Amino acid sequence: MSDNRVIQVHLNNGTIETFYGKLSEVFAQQLKCHQFIQSHVSYVVNYDFVKKKEGDVILMKSGIRIPVSRKYREETKKRLSSFVMSKYG
Fold this sequence. Notes:
Layout (H helix, E strand, L loop, with lengths): L5 E5 L5 E5 L2 H9 L4 E5 L2 E4 L3 E5 L2 E4 L4 E3 L5 H16 L1
Antiparallel strand pairs: 1-2, 3-4, 5-6, 6-7
């Protein structure tokens, strides 16, 4: 299989699970209804691990910076705002 179909899932315990597939399909079929958002063609993040959004970057609690592409900018902003409102009222 092609390297561009390798999906790595970084778990809270520090392990990384690797499998093959299309990130867009995994997100649409399994993650979109949960607390995840696709911020870039190559990234899906869990809201619970987001520290804050700074411009076109999501800063994770771990310190990792995740890009937000133009294509996903409005949806990311909308869903993060909705998540914060539902969690913190």
